[in-house]
Amino acid sequence: MMRKMLQKFLIEAALACSLAMSGLMLVLLLPYDKQFGYSRMLESCGRGDWLYNRIFENKTPIDIAFIGSSRTICGVNDSLLESCLNVYVANLGFCRYGRSLHYALFKDLLRKKSPKTLVLEVHEEESRSGHPDFSHIADMEDLLLPVSFKNWLMQLVDGVQDRVGYHAKKMLGDLPAYDAAGNSMPYHFVAHPGKANAAALAKVKNRKTQKAGKIRLEPPWSRRISKKYLWEIVALAMHHQVEVKFLYLPSYGALETQPAELEFYKKYGEVLLPPAPFSQSPEYRVDEDHLNDEGAMLLTEWLAGNL
Predict the structure, then answer these.
(1) Which of 74, 200, 236, 287 counts the highest number of beta carbons within 10 A?
(2) How many CB atoms lie within 10 A of CB 185?
(3) What does the domain layout of the chain look like in residue ranges?
(4) Coil, strand or helix: which one is 139?
(5) pLDDT digits (tens, 9 = 90+) for 263-280
């Protein structure tokens, strides 16, 4: 009796799993509007709709694409750089650091544009994890068979939720409004005219100085996820004959004049190392992580002479 009950339970469990997997595959195979995915990123940065427009709808070419975090958003004046170099420049930075999102953005960029150069932001160290908004715009195959399986299940669940939400809202006629005209501008550098509090930055620098030299015990694979996605980005760039460069944008008071992974980056492209004053001078900062207008102008002019 117990054996038959166990057999029945296992058969029902297997059937339930099969139905769940079939439902999952169906959801992932249904058409998914990337505009909806990019709009979901509005919650964390407010640039999702603009990024979608610049990549998918705006007919202005992109010769040089900058991809990074808010440090790129506030540090690279794409309009100024474009006028200096006489080529089309796009600042495609997005809040927070994470190579998985950079990978998804670059894939979409290659579908719609033909960039000649990709400039990737680098920090003092690579991130230990992916980007929290990756699943919103990731392709189906990158959710099912990701470059890295770290947080894979969570990303898959988020991606499925996005797709279920999209189709539910579509059937109900409740898709979020998209302002194409309001997001059609070709540039999206964010200016910060103010200056950081010098005393606050002094505390930041003192804290970093005190931490310097302390032994840090990290497993060698702690930043593997970033390196895997970086390699995939570079592979895509090589396939599409896009030159890759790396732009070092450290936080204020960084004691390192070059990124920890410098030799890793140099295998795949030139590493642009701006002068130390950009990381050491408080007058060029609006806060610990971001340049103000003056700092951004100086950085952009420096880039114009080094790209």
Answers:
(1) 74
(2) 13
(3) 29-196+242-304
(4) coil
(5) 999 999 999 999 887 778
* CA–CA gap between residue 225 and residue 5 (Å, rounded): 44
| pLDDT at 14 (0 to 100) | 47
Q: How far apart are CA 13 and CA 24, in angstroms?
A: 16
Two structure tokens written together for 259: 């990124």
What is the per-residue pLDDT for 28?
61
Which CATH entry fits the domain spanning 29-196+242-304: 3.40.50, 3.30.1490, 3.30.70, 3.40.1130? 3.40.50
Q: Strand locations in the chain, DSSP E?
A: 64-67, 89-91, 117-122, 243-248, 270-272
pTM of the shown model: 0.89
Any idea what DSSP says for residue 300? H
**CA pair distance 190, 74, nearest whole angstrom:** 5
d(CA 304, CA 29): 44
Higher-scoring residue by pLDDT: 16, 95: 95
**Measured distance CA(110)–CA(104) in Å, rounded:** 10
